[in-house]
Write a structure and sequence with these properties.
CATH class of the largest domain: Mainly Beta
CATH topology of the largest domain: Immunoglobulin-like
Strand content: 25-35%
Largest sheet: 4 strands, mixed
CATH superfamily of the largest domain: Immunoglobulins
Distance between the termini: 118 Å
Number of helices: 1
Helix content: under 10%
Structural class: mainly beta
Order of helices and strands: EHEEEEEEEEEEEE
CATH architecture of the largest domain: Sandwich
Shape: rod-shaped
Length: 185
């Protein structure tokens, strides 16, 4: 933009407007020096001052971007969450075969197990896969429900879904109906 300013009231007004523009967009400026000094990234055009006080020249323009580039952000690295341990509750149970008298609190033919998987980040979950080492003796459901099938012994295994090599077991004994251990003194 070319400009020419002559001394007087209108020159002061124009100078004030140019100063306001320069402050608002931080790109253009007016200097009372004979040769304006451009900022980095700006083109430089020299101006001249005449003996009558007239300033002539061009306002420098910027070729630099006004918006800074965003700084790169590092992705946080987190350690993988692993299984610390598995626990089963209760750890043992005695069941009776279904039949007369079974199913009562004295002669239970079924039971419910629960499991917790403790993780390396301090949390826990109940995500396990249940299995029986002797399905002809005791069966176990996907939710940990036990059912006596035949007299004998079995281990019920709870394996962590995240790491099936991490397990816990419960020892189960299945006895014939109505066996009660009574001691008389």
């Amino acid at each position: 933009m070319k400009m020419s300013i002559t001394p007087g009231r209108s020159a002061v007004a124009v100078l004030a407007v140019l100063l306001a523009i320069g402050c608002a967009d931080n790109q253009a400026y007016v200097s009372t020096a004979a040769t304006p000094v451009p900022r980095t990234g700006q083109t430089r055009t020299t101006g001249t001052t005449t003996t009558s006080g007239t300033i002539t020249g061009e306002i420098p323009t910027s070729s630099a971007s006004a918006t800074p580039a965003p700084a790169p952000t590092a992705k946080p690295t987190t350690a993988p969450v692993t299984v610390s341990s598995v626990a089963v509750s209760p750890g043992s149970a005695t069941l009776d075969l279904p039949g007369s008298g079974s199913g009562t609190p004295v002669f239970p033919s079924s039971a419910q197990l629960s499991a917790l998987v403790y993780l390396s980040d301090g949390t826990s979950t109940g995500s396990v896969i249940w299995s029986s080492t002797a399905t002809p003796t005791v069966t176990v459901s996907a939710t940990g429900s036990l059912l006596a099938v035949a007299a004998g012994r079995a281990e019920i295994v709870a394996a962590a879904v995240q790491d099936p090599s991490r397990t816990a077991t419960a020892s189960i004994v299945v006895q014939a109906n109505g066996v009660v251990g009574i001691t008389i003194d």
